[in-house]
Amino acid sequence: MKKVRTTVIFIIMLICGLSSFAQNGFLDFKDLSNVNIDNYSDKQILSLYNQAQASGFSNSELISKLSDKGMPPSEIEKLKTRLESIGFKKQSDISNHTSSSSEEVGHMYDTSGKAPPVEPFQNDNSIFGSELFTSNSLVFEPNLRIPAPAGYVLGPDDELIISVYGYSEKKYNLTINESGEIYIPNVGPVYLNGLSIEEASQQIKTKLASTIYRAINTGKTKVAVTLGKIRSIRVTVIGQAKKPGTYTVSSLTTLYNILYLCGGPTSMGSYRDIEVIRGNQLKRRADLYDFLVDGNQKDNIILQEGDVIRIPYYKKRVTLSGNVKREGKFELLENQTFNDLLRYSGGFTDNAYKGAVTVIRITDSVKKIIDLSSDDFKDFVISGSDQYIVRKLQDEFANRVFISGSVLRPGPYQLTPGLTIASLIQKAGGFKRDAYINRISIFRYLENKMPTMVSVDLNSDKQNNENLQLVKDDSVAVHSIFEFHDSNYVTIEGNVRKPSTLPWRQNLSLRDVLLASGGIAESGDSTNIEITRRIKNANVDIINHNESEILNINLESKDEKAEDVTLEPYDIVIVKTLPGFSTQRTVLLTGEVKSPGRYGLQKSGDKIDDIIKRAGGFKASADSSSITIRRSIQSDLSTVEREKLFQRILNINPDSISLHPRVREEIYKSYDLINVDLTKALADPKSSENLILEDGDVLTISRNSNLVKISGEVYNPTIIPYKENKNLKYYVQQAGNFTPYARKTGALVIYPDGKAASVKHFLFFKSYPHVTPRSEIFVPQKNKSNKSRLGIGEMALIVSAMGILSNVIINITK
């Protein structure tokens, strides 16, 4: 929409004649028959954009006017193409918009023919009223969709709509020409220049009634005159405006409209003495504070052709800071007081000290401080360059005392004359039941502000202590008896539904604790409950002395009082597990077996071969020589042992020789992995390889694979087919051989069952281990060392030194 509006404005300018864009503007040109768009550069077209953007024409009317003024259709198309090429909307958007959707009127622009000047002034947002001209959310535009305001003066280029209705029906759309006249067909010219819309209406009515519409005199025919399209006017802004200059604007433009367009006053300009000069006479002296403070628009007058707006320098400006609702710089008129300044700022904030204000005044030679009392606010006349500082109210109370602790309503209270500690406690609702009244503490400040404390015992000399008078800022603390006791508790754990720690109470029994914990669980043994009790004073002279007392409780016994055993602070109640109670245990068998799935462990000693038999044996594709068991991590393996186990577990995927490192890492976090020689386990059920299974074990029988993996310090880590009777050296060569960083003596073969074999050395001979299908060959990296090899010069120096040392030794032994 914005681009369409921009396009419309370009067309408006072309209506007025493109050939004189640099000097006279376009409003004086009416013949566009000789315009050649090709003669203008993009820069010139952009200059036109900044020159004339003030009109209310619809798109369809503008296109029509281009034709009416003689612009050839080919040049109109060229214009559309040029507009599109420099970043505006498509041609169809220009020609197809109707006036109802695109007639955004009232925008005003500098029409000097130059690009907008670079802003020479830095916005000072601390100046009161400056936000009116710097905020993007505030846009002052004339409203062209309202009836002509009272007193609107007609002039050339204003359009009048004359509607005749009643006995006769007729409508005229007539524009006032340069001579100030309209021409009514069959009636003649009517001079309207300088008349108001009301005066023009009466003039037209009289003319029509005396010529072709005589029924107007009898009332059978009526006439209505309204303002159609409005003309443009030129106004000039001078003085301390951010963008002074001459502006072509709508004839409905007001003073505030033009002030917004020119950027408002500069940091040195006045907001309170803006002059509107008309015909070399002062028409209006405007004060923007009337609008900013009260919303009064009495000075927002409609401008006329040739008006001059002058913004003078400010005369008196002061600074207000501190605890007011609007800090900043304010412009004051002669004889205005601090009360006026306070009104402009919105008044004091809630936490402002209102008794006095600090004034910094600049005299001819020095600065001085003035303490302005609130009594003088209304009479203290403002001086230019004053600085006013409103300070914050101190967080201090004139008549406050405070009570806390074991009273019903603790908090601050008013200090009344003669207030005693007893009356303050009464105000606070009295003591709670746990109040300790033998020593009540009063925290007090002495006259020199040093803190002190007064203690009161209301049990002894009650009358005198209760009448102890309080002073300003006293803080009374009533202690609780629970402050002098430990937080006693008991614990119940083991086979109960809700193991927990409970606060201890007098006469708390075993039955109470069992109920609070949800009762004994299904696995709990009610005949074997153990209470562990603290021994407060153990005999430490005995080496093997008792540290706690054990009470065994059998709830199934004939002793009916067993549940009523009274517990003491810090007792631990433990409900043991029923002998022989256990939940079902299962394992998961996956991979190349005939019936994979979950299997229950029937006996505590079920082994690998038992589960494989129950699964119906292996599939033909299975590698029956090894099995991988994933077992939940047990705490009896150290981190170092587990890392060693991880390093030798490489084949944990039934379909490949190794698992992706990221997946394998996740598995390592949750499980121990155990590789077993399945051939030995099945051949001899009593073999150590035939492990006893545990709950949650995951057994995996891998798919038979004829591959070998080579990794580590080789040039091309890879996976290759297995070659019978080939050793480690062969496979390393297939992977490109060792890299310079390889530790050849540490190369090893890791077999599917988790065992490993390394290169063996005897004198100068090396024995390379054999390789089986699904093995992995790993070549480690050399250990990093800070030692560097000796150069030739260093070696020569050492040999020379050794020779000299030998000669010395020989001479000594002679």
UniProtKB/TrEMBL annotation:
Residues 1-22 form the signal peptide. Residues 234-281, 317-362, 400-445, 589-632, 708-743 form the Soluble ligand binding domain. GO terms for cellular component: cell outer membrane; pore complex. Residues 92-116 are annotated as: Disordered. Residues 148-213 form the Polysaccharide export protein N-terminal domain. Its main location: membrane. It is a multi-pass membrane protein. Residues 93-103 have a biased composition (Polar residues). The keyword Glycoprotein does not apply. One of its GO terms (biological process) is monoatomic ion transport. This is Uncharacterized protein.
